[in-house]
Amino acid sequence: METQARARLADPLPLAQELIRCRSVTPADAGAIAALERALTALGFTCTRLAFDSGGPRIENLYARLGTAAPNICFAGHTDVVPPGDTSAWRFDPFAAAVDAGTLYGRGAADMKSAIAAFIAAVARAAERHGNRGSISLLITGDEEGPAVDGTTRVLDWLKENGERLDHCIVGEPTSEFAAGDTVKIGRRGSLTGYLRVKGMQGHVGYPDRAKNPIPGLVAVLQRLTQRKLDTGTADFQPSNLEVTTVDVGNPATNVIPAEARATFNIRFNTEQTAQSLEDWINGECSAALKPFGLQHEIKFNRGAHPFLTKQGAFTALLEEAIANVTGERPTFSTTGGTSDARFIHHHCPVAEIGLAGTTMHKTDERVSLADLERLTRIYEAILDAYFAGNGA
Predict the structure, then answer these.
(1) Is 366 a residue of the active site?
(2) What residues does 302 pair with on adjacent strands?
(3) Helix, strand or coil for residue 386?
């Protein structure tokens, strides 16, 4: 039966289509985890369904392992997707998984159901060659596009509690630039969001002495924050940058000085900064800017992620060589872009992100060419061959 399953699953397209047809918009699962469980069980994996609920919707996750020996190379990914938006603007139904002119269309085609199918196809092609030289596992969550509370972090805790060790991990996010494997993400900057409220006193615009306008104070704060150059970057990371994302007063009247003004900003920061040092600096700038106006402020912070880096060494060299053997070109190692669940996994083992091109992720007519899907499958297969030939890295 496993032989038949390997032959059937060696082509990534049917499984990618099956997953796309599951309307798993965060936090819905819509059968996506069950579809993976069926495919992996057929290949001989031991599958464990893990559902968590921290007061919100119940999140479905899956950990599957083939083999019991070390080293254990893990593939991490997610089956949840972002909403499709206006479906009438799509060329095809976003959940139909249509194929046209050598291209697969659908929500999740790039981010990242196709990559999951590609890895499983690679396992179907390569697993029989590896014998008992190690283990292959998958950590799949349904909570990456959402709050990321009951997904990868909870599964990682479960793995630790149950003595499951990950030696290395590949995350299948669409981190390539133009073609699968042209870029490998080996780190990410951290993310810190600030929610600022400047408190004034409401009053009539004709009697400004009887009110306190918070808007000039807010402008002064934002000017100070945006004028500072946080750093010049490092050998591995871009410079840290602060971007104002919203400014809001919510005042419908033209003759009323508002009682408060609000702004939200986000900082993407490298290893030259820490969340705590940034928060201390921001609070100091707020107080200094608002003192001449006699205004007070409140600010709340959300620490979305801390910066991390997988140092280049034996593992990254193995990935580079495997990719070059398939594509004929060596990948670029990068730390640019947003965050991913790799930010959680790096605490447990070295991690790198290798996937499809991200040019259409989250967009209308999200898609992947079948040629690139096959290219990624061959890359994953080459990585597995190299990993077990050297018994890990």
Answers:
(1) no
(2) 193
(3) helix
